[in-house]
């Protein structure tokens, strides 16, 4: 857990041009505090301690405006900018070195059971106000523009998606305009299924 937190601290320095030094980051970067509290609540959630993880998550939301379910799996080097209004659901999975801005929702549609929330690959940026709903896969090295909506659609690796409904506007560095494909949502094992999906 401590190694992961150190990566999270480095992620603030890497991603936030306003971050002057590590002391300032540790004292003043509220979304980092939210991530740290999540790392702790996730560990005690995994141990199987009841109620306390959700209680910590509730306090976290009260203090930082960031709501992360204790069961959500988040990779190292995670960076949230500004933070307020971020919602990350119970079965969401986030790869390494991802960036999320304020008012992003990684939520469910209300129609699914078990795996209900998005799975993000590595190096994914999700712009402010973006809404990602359902058990969908977002590939590696993806940028999702501010105010983009992606509902029950998968996103391939190495692309940029913008708009409502989200469309691919950049793929492997080239400008394109491609509709997203319907989510292959029969997955229950998150990252493992994502790897299978990518190698299909
Ligand atoms: C999507 C984004 C990451 C840029 O990615 P990119 O791969 O460099 O994409 P480009 O800038 O080349 O834009 C590609 C096209 O999408 C359009 N576009 C970019 N972002 C968009 C958005 N959020 N909504 C709608 N269209 C958008 C561009 O105007 C461009 O259109 P064009 O092909 O007609 O010229 C960036 O625009 C963005 O939305 N970042 C979010 C940052 C954020 O949330 N900041 C909050 C700070 S407080």
Question: Helical segment tally?
Answer: 5
Order of helices and strands: HHHHEEEEEEEEEEEEEEEEEEH
Please give the number of β-strands. Answer: 18
Strand content: 25-35%
* Multimerization status: single chain
What structural class do the secondary elements suggest? alpha/beta
Helix content: 25-40%
Q: Label the overall shape.
A: globular
Distance linking N and C termini: 33 Å
Q: Averaging pLDDT over every residue, what do you get?
A: 93
Unique bound compounds: coenzyme A
Question: Unreliable stretches, pLDDT < 50, 5 or more residues?
Answer: none
What is the gyration radius calculated from CA atoms?
16 Å
Largest sheet: 7 strands, mixed
Explain what you see.
The protein is α/β, with parallel strands linked by helices and 200 residues long. 30% of the residues lie in helices and 25% in strands. The protein has helices spanning 2-15, 22-28, 30-47, 52-64, 191-198, and strands at 67-68, 73-74, 79-81, 87-88, 93-94, 99-101, 105-107, 119-120, 125-126, 131-133, 137-138, 143-144, 149-151, 153-154, 159-162, 167-171, 174-179, 181-182. Residues 101, 125, 127-128, 143, 145-148, 160, 162-163, 169-170, 175 line the site of coenzyme A.
């Amino acid at each position: 857990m401590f190694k992961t937190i150190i990566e999270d601290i480095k992620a603030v320095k890497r991603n936030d041009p306003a971050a002057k030094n590590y002391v300032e980051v540790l004292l003043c970067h509220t979304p980092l505090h939210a991530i740290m509290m999540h790392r702790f609540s996730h560990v005690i959630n995994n141990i199987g301690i009841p109620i306390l993880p959700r209680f910590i998550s509730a306090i976290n939301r009260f203090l930082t405006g960031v709501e992360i379910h204790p069961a959500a799996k988040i990779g190292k080097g995670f960076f949230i900018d500004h933070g307020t209004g971020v919602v990350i659901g119970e079965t969401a999975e986030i790869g390494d070195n991802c960036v999320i801005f304020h008012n992003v929702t990684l939520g469910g549609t209300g129609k699914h059971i078990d795996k209900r929330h998005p799975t993000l690959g590595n190096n994914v940026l999700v712009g402010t106000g973006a809404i990602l709903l359902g058990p969908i896969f977002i590939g590696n090295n993806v940028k999702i523009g501010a105010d983009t909506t992606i509902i029950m659609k998968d996103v391939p690796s190495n692309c940029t998606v913008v708009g409502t409904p989200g469309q691919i506007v950049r793929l492997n560095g080239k400008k394109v305009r491609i509709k997203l494909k319907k989510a292959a949502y029969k997955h229950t094992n998150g990252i493992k299924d994502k790897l299978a999906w990518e190698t299909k």
